[in-house]
Amino acid sequence: MVDTAPVNAGVERGVGTTALLVAAARAIETHRPDSLAADVYAEHFVRAAPASAGWPVRPHQVPDGDADPLWGRFARYFGLRTRVLDDFLLNAAHTGGIRQVVLLGAGLDTRAYRLDWPSGCVVFEIDREGVLAFKHQVLGALAAEPKAARTPVATDLRADWAGALTGAGFDPTAPTVWLAEGLLFYLPGAAETHLVTTVDRLSAPGSALAYEVKLEKDLLAYRDSPLYTSTHRQLGIDLIGLFSREPRPDSAGDLTARGWSASVRTPFEFSLLHGRGPLPEPNDALAGNRWVFADKPPS
Ligand SMILES: C[S@@+](CC[C@H](N)C(=O)[O-])C[C@H]1O[C@@H](n2cnc3c(N)ncnc32)[C@H](O)[C@@H]1O
C-alpha cells in the first residue's frame, strides 16, 4: 500500500469519499470481460486509502455480481458514464480540434494519463486540495506519466474559481472542452449557476461542455432505493446527505439562452447504444440522472 497518511484526509471524509467510490467502480469495470472503459490506476487509489482498502476492485470480489445494487448495477453505471464521457472528450479533441480540457471536480479521474490525446493538449484538473494531494501521491508512487500536459488546480468550486484556473495558465481565447462528471449534485444551486456562467464566460467559440445532473424531484424521492441504502450501509457514504438540497437551476436552459446548443440524455439511452449498462427499474435512484452535452457555436 502507498503511504498516503499525510494526505489521505482529502478522500477519507465527506464528499471526497465519493471519488473513491467512483474509483472502485472503475477498477471493477476495467476487469469485466465486457468492459466499457479501462482505468489501470483506479484500484491503486482504492487500495491506498484506509477508508476503501477493503472494497472490491475486481468483478470476482462481488459475489452477487450485477445483482449487487452497489458493486453491480451502480458500478456499471459509473463504467458506462466513464466510457461515454471518454468518447465525448476524445471526440472534442480529435474531431473538434480542441486542445484545452478542464475537468471540474476531477476527483480521481485519470483521463490525463490513460486517454490518447492529440499532441499539444493541456488538461486542467480542478478539485479540493486534499483530493488532488492524495491523487498526486498515489500516481507519483506508480511513476505514472500523463499523456497530456496536466495541471492540477486546487480550489473550491463554491468560491470564485476562475482566478485560480486562469492563474494556472488556462487560456480563455482557446476553445475548451469542459467536464463536470458526478459533481453538480454536491454544489448549492447558486454555485451551479455560477459554474455555468463562468464556463460560458471563459469559453471561446467552438467550446464544448458535458455535465451530469439529477432532476430535482428525484433527489429525495428515491432515498429508500437499493442503490442509496446499499451505498450507505456497505460504505458509510450517505449520498443523499452529501447532495445539496437546494432547488436546482435549469442549466441546460441557461446555456441555451446564452447561445449554446444543449442535448439532455438519459444514461439508459447509452446502455442501449452500448448493449450493456443499467436499464430502468422500480424505485430507481438513477431515474432522474441526466447527461447534458452542450456546444458553443464556432464564430
Ligand atoms: C463523485 S466525485 C467525482 C469525481 C470525478 N469527476 C469522477 O467522476 O471520477 C465528486 C468530486 O467532486 C469534488 N467536489 C465536490 N464539491 C467540490 C467543491 N465544492 N469544490 C471542488 N471540488 C468539489 C469532490 O472532491 C470529488 O472529488
Explain this structure to me?
- The chain is an alpha/beta fold and 299 residues long.
- It has one domain: Rossmann fold (3-Layer(aba) Sandwich), CATH 3.40.50.
- Helix content is 41%, strand content 14%.
- It contains 13 helices and 7 strands.
- The protein has helices at 9-12, 16-30, 42-48, 69-94, 111-114, 129-141, 162-167, 189-202, 218-221, 226-235, 239-242, 251-257, 267-274; strands spanning 100-104, 122-127, 149-154, 176-180, 208-214, 261-265, 289-295.
- It has a 7-stranded mixed β-sheet with strand order 3-2-1-4-5-7-6, sandwiched between helices.
- Helix 8 (189-202) links the parallel strand 4 and strand 5.
- Helix 2 crosses helix 4 (69-94).
- It is globular.
- The chain starts with 8 loop residues before the first helix and ends with a strand.
- The relative contact order is 0.14.
- The structure holds S-adenosylmethionine (SAM).
- The site of S-adenosylmethionine has 21 residues, from helix 2.
List strands and helices in order, with pairings.
Layout: H1 9-12, H2 16-30, H3 42-48, H4 69-94, E1 100-104, H5 111-114, E2 122-127, H6 129-141, E3 149-154, H7 162-167, E4 176-180, H8 189-202, E5 208-214, H9 218-221, H10 226-235, H11 239-242, H12 251-257, E6 261-265, H13 267-274, E7 289-295
Parallel strand pairs: 1-2, 1-4, 2-3, 4-5
Antiparallel strand pairs: 5-7, 6-7
Helix pairs in contact: 2-3, 2-4, 4-10
The structure holds S-adenosylmethionine (SAM).
